[in-house]
TrEMBL record:
It is an enzyme of class 2 (transferase). GO terms for cellular component: cytosol. This is Uridine phosphorylase. It comes from Gadus morhua (Atlantic cod). Pathway: Pyrimidine metabolism; UMP biosynthesis via salvage pathway; uracil from uridine (phosphorylase route): step 1/1. Substrate binds at Q213, R215. Catalyzes the reversible phosphorylytic cleavage of uridine to uracil and ribose-1-phosphate which can then be utilized as carbon and energy sources or in the rescue of pyrimidine bases for nucleotide synthesis. Shows broad substrate specificity and can also accept deoxyuridine and other analogous compounds.
Length: 315
C-alpha cells in the first residue's frame, strides 16, 4: 500500500495492493490495458470511480455503460462512449461518471490478468470505497432459465469455497468470500424491481465449459449421462445453483484488495435438462440483459444515496 494515501479522507476504504516491489518501480505499465503511470494521469482519469462492473464480453460492457449512463442521467447524445483501452484488443474499458465497465474474457486466467491491472489502476488512481460487481451468464441447476443467481459463496469443482493457484511451484489456497451485505442489498433491489426472479446461492466456478461442467456435448467425454446427473445432483445438494468460470478468482482477488464484491449471473439453461444453448439469439440476448438491469438499478439507488449524504453534509 502507498503510505502517502493511507489516511486520506476520514473512514474511506482504499484499494489495497500487497506487493512491496511496486514501490521500487519508476513506472507501472498496465500492459493489457495500454495504460501506465508515466503515460496517463490515472488519478485524474479514474479517481472518481466508485462502481466497477466487469463481464466477459467487450460488446456487453459497452452496452452496460450506455445503459447506466441513461439510468444516471449522464448520457451525452453527441458522444459515443470511447473504449479507454482502444490501443489494445485484449480488454475493453468504458467510463461514465463514477462507473467503470471492463471486459474480462472467458475463464480464470483471463479475468485474473485483467484484475491484477484493474486493482493496480484503482490503487494508483487513489480510488476509495469502490464496489465491484461481475455481471455474467451461467448454467443453472434446478432453476427456471432466466433466474439471476447472486453468489453467496464461490466454490470449486469439488464444492469447496476456495481458489487454488500454483505459485513458485507451491499450491496457494485463498478464500472466495464475497460481501454478504452487498448480496442481500442486490436481492432486495431485484425484489423491488419485480421483473425477474433472483436467488442468493452458491456458484460453482470451473476451469472449462465442457467436461469441467459435466457436459455431454464436448469433443471428448469420458462419463455417462447418469454420471453427469449424479454430479449435478451432488452440486445441488451442496447448495450450488449455477456454474460459471470466473467467480472464484474474482472473489479472492477483490477480497485481498479490500473491495466490496458481488457476482450476479443469469442462468441461460437448466443443466439438469440439457447442455446445449439452443435458445434463439433474441431470447439469449434478452436474458443477458437481466444482470445489467439489476446492477443498473442498484447503482442508481446507491448513487442517489451518496448524493443525498453529500448534500446533507454540505448544509
Ligand atoms: C460464463 O459464460 C462463459 C462461457 O460461455 C464464461 O466466461 C462464463 O463464466
Ligand atoms: N456459462 C457457463 O460457464 N456455463 C453455462 O452453462 C452457460 C454459460
Amino acid at each position: 500500500m502507498d503510505p502517502g494515501h493511507e489516511n486520506q479522507g476520514s473512514s474511506s476504504c482504499p484499494v489495497y495492493v500487497h506487493n512491496p516491489h511496486l514501490k521500487t518501480m519508476k513506472e507501472d505499465v498496465l500492459y493489457h490495458f495500454n495504460l501506465g503511470t508515466s503515460t496517463h494521469n490515472l488519478p485524474a482519469l479514474f479517481g472518481d470511480v466508485k462502481f466497477v462492473c466487469v463481464g466477459g464480453s467487450p460488446w456487453r460492457m459497452k452496452s452496460f455503460i450506455e445503459y447506466i449512463a441513461g439510468e444516471l442521467g449522464l448520457e451525452d447524445p453527441k458522444s459515443e462512449y470511447p473504449n479507454i483501452c482502444a490501443g489494445t484488443d485484449r480488454y475493453a474499458m468504458y467510463k461514465v461518471g463514477p462507473v467503470l465497465s471492463v471486459s474480462h474474457g472467458m475463464g480464470i486466467p483471463s479475468i485474473s490478468i485483467m484484475l491484477h491491472e484493474l486493482l493496480k489502476l484503482l490503487h494508483h488512481a487513489h480510488c476509495t470505497d469502490v464496489t465491484i460487481i461481475r455481471i455474467g451468464t451461467s448454467g443453472g441447476i434446478g432453476l427456471e432459465p432466466g433466474t439471476i443467481v447472486i453468489t453467496k459463496q464461490s466454490v470449486d469443482a469439488t464444492f469447496l469455497p476456495k481458489f487454488e493457484q500454483v505459485i513458485l511451484g507451491k499450491n496457494v489456497v485463498r478464500s472466495t468470500d464475497l460481501d454478504t451485505e452487498l448480496a442481500e442489498q442486490l436481492l432486495q433491489c431485484s425484489n423491488r424491481l419485480n421483473q425477474f426472479k433472483s436467488v442468493i446461492a452458491n456458484t460453482m466456478c470451473t476451469m472449462d465449459f465442457y467436461e469441467g461442467q459435466a457436459r455431454l456435448d464436448g469433443a471428448f467425454c469420458s462419463y455417462t449421462q447418469e454420471d453427469k446427473q449424479d454430479y449435478l445432483a451432488k452440486a445441488y445438494a451442496s447448495g450450488v445453483r449455477n456454474i460459471e468460470m470466473e467467480s472464484s478468482v474474482f472473489a479472492s482477488m477483490c477480497k485481498l484488495s479490500g473491495l466490496k464484491a458481488a457476482v450476479v449471473c443469469v442462468t441461460l439453461l437448466d443443466r439438469q435438462k440439457g447442455d446445449q444453448l439452443s435458445g434463439s439469439h433474441q431470447v439469449l440476448h434478452d436474458l443477458q440483459q437481466r444482470p445489467q438491469i439489476l446492477v443498473g438499478h442498484f447503482i442508481k439507488t446507491q448513487s442517489l444515496e451518496i448524493q443525498k449524504a453529500v448534500g446533507s453534509g454540505n448544509e
